[in-house]
Design goal:
Elements: H1 8-56, H2 63-94, H3 97-121, H4 125-147, H5 154-162, H6 166-202, H7 205-210
Length: about 220
């Protein structure tokens, strides 16, 4: 019985699966492991800086110099407080139970992608099914993530932290909303294109035929 030959297309997809599966799984794992201590360290750093500001305020005899120093310290305290608020809001979003669950599911999908890539190199029949199933679940996760809504006043709060004047806050709010819309559109396009190509390629008859074998796989010459 002739050995099944692996096409260049299957080989290319296998390499992509292994590469992206490994990199994305590492990124998701780092997010789950490193994000909580990172936010904690940043919050402690800001609180320490605020405490240092209080200790650095030495009495100044000259009234004008004292007023300038107090105004400078007040602006710095306000900036640090705004940074702390923005950091807490970002932490609350990224470390919310829903986002943590999505990151865990993403990690699982990327591990599946990595395993599927290894199996595709061997033309294992289960690997094609794993690749197709992973693409379907990735599309479902994409729809869930893009459909998730932040608190309605979150954008306004972020803009308030980053700008003082109402006009500047409104411009910044519009820019943030535009960036979010463009980001969602790009994520939708790339996610549907990538996973759609996977579903199309691995459901082609010529590709399916490569996985219907019982003999060891041979490399094309």
């Amino acid at each position: 019985m002739a050995h099944t030959r692996r096409s260049g297309g299957v080989t290319a997809w296998a390499v992509l699966f292994i590469m992206f599966g490994l990199l994305n799984a590492a990124g998701s794992a780092l997010m789950l492991v490193c994000a909580p201590p990172f936010f904690q360290a940043m919050e402690q750093s800001i609180q320490q800086r605020l405490a240092d500001l209080e200790r650095e305020q030495a009495p100044i005899q000259d009234p004008e110099v004292a007023a300038d120093a107090e105004a400078s310290h007040a602006r710095l305290r306000q900036s640090l407080a705004s940074a702390a608020n923005s950091l807490r809001r970002t932490r609350d979003i990224l470390l919310s139970p829903r986002m943590v669950a999505m990151t865990q599911f993403t990690l699982l999908l990327n591990i599946v992608m990595l395993i599927a890539g290894i199996g595709l190199l061997r033309l294992a029949p289960w690997a094609r099914l794993l690749a197709v199933g992973q693409a379907v679940f990735a599309l479902i996760l994409l729809m869930i993530v893009l459909g998730a809504h932040h608190p309605p006043d979150l954008t306004l709060q972020v803009a308030s932290d980053m700008a003082r004047e109402p006009a500047a806050q409104e411009r910044l709010r519009q820019q943030i909303q535009l960036g979010e819309s463009l980001g969602k559109a790009w994520s939708l396009f790339t996610g549907v294109a990538w996973n759609g190509l996977i579903l199309w390629f691995f459901n082609r008859a010529s590709v399916k035929a490569q996985f219907q074998h019982t003999e060891p796989v041979s490399q094309p010459s």
